[in-house]
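Late entry, written up from scratch paper. The run itself happened at the end of the previous shift, but nothing got recorded in the book at the time, so transcribing now.
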Amino acid sequence: MNDSRERRPGVLQIFKSVGAAFFGVQSEANRQRDFTHGQLHHYVLAGLVATVVFVLVLWGVVQLVLTLAGVE
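Output as recorded:
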């Protein structure tokens, strides 16, 4: 089997890398793997999905707090 095919990051690894990038704690080994074997559009799409989920979670928390506080 092709060596670069075996080392290509999977979906979970891509989302872990995007999550680490959100917090700025990406390891050098993972960064090298991402830049060597990853495809840019996978990381862009994962970053957009993660950003939308993050914004929706924040919106939900704010709505919950406002509801519990009795503010409408």
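The chain has four helices and no strands.
(Scratch paper discarded after transcription.)
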